[in-house]
Design a protein that fits this description.
Blueprint: E1 2-3, E2 7-8, H1 16-20, H2 25-36, H3 42-68, E3 72-75, E4 79-87, E5 94-102, H4 104-109, E6 127-129, H5 132-138, H6 145-164, E7 169-173, E8 176-181, E9 184-189, H7 191-194
Parallel strand pairs: 3-6
Antiparallel strand pairs: 1-9, 2-9, 3-4, 4-5, 7-8, 8-9
């Protein structure tokens, strides 16, 4: 794996227990489902969990399809993942390096004011902005635009809550792992998932 750009945010005290134990996607989905289904049946909780997991899968299928083709993705309330193109030192040509950046909207959601506005390196691939309707129609069989919107809103909010509280996170994604510790956020890219193969990815 290759570590991407990291973002360090001003500190805030959080739970010591949560700071030492990694928060995963499963934990986040469980917390949101419990909030939505408080006092309701196990069947309702399971339905909420299913929608959240399917939304995350749809988002990651879209991310992988574009990143695989050396294109970037822009999730306005969350982050950008793209490619930086640089001259190759071996035999000329151009080499590509995956790049991660939190969006200003996500950083502001943590109630941080004294931060440097995030910017991408020069010569990066253009980023396609996430579209809720496209995720629902093209990357899932059962989701609707509204379900995708609400699910991603809650998933990103909950990730932000844990980051804000200095918890340790390891959120698996299709092209790597989003990590956080002591309010420092970074992305470890999985080069194997980004390596071109004989199978053509479609976006």
């Amino acid at each position: 794996r290759q570590a991407g750009q990291s973002a360090g945010l001003p500190g805030r005290e959080g739970s010591a227990a949560m700071a030492t134990k990694e928060v995963t996607l499963a934990k986040i989905v469980e917390e949101i489902a419990n909030e939505r289904g408080s006092g309701k049946s196990a069947k309702v909780l399971a339905a909420h969990s299913k929608a959240l997991n399917e939304t995350w899968d749809a988002l990651n299928a879209w991310i992988h399809a574009l990143m695989f083709k050396r294109k970037g993705v822009h999730i306005p309330m969350f982050m950008k993942l793209t490619w930086e193109f640089m001259p190759s030192t071996a035999g000329g040509g151009v080499r590509a390096r995956p790049v991660f950046m939190l969006t200003e909207q996500f950083i502001r959601s943590l109630r941080v004011t004294n931060f440097k506005k995030p910017t991408l390196p020069p010569s990066t691939a253009a980023c396609e902005e996430m579209n809720f309707s496209s995720l629902a129609l093209k990357y899932s069989e059962t989701l609707t635009k509204d379900v995708v919107f609400l699910s991603l809103r809650d998933l990103v909010r909950k990730i932000g809550d844990h980051v804000s509280c200095s918890h340790t996170l390891a959120i698996e994604m299709s092209v790597g792992t989003l990590k956080a510790k002591q309010r420092k956020v970074w992305f470890e890219f999985d080069q194997n998932s980004l390596r071109p193969s004989d199978a053509a990815a479609t976006a």
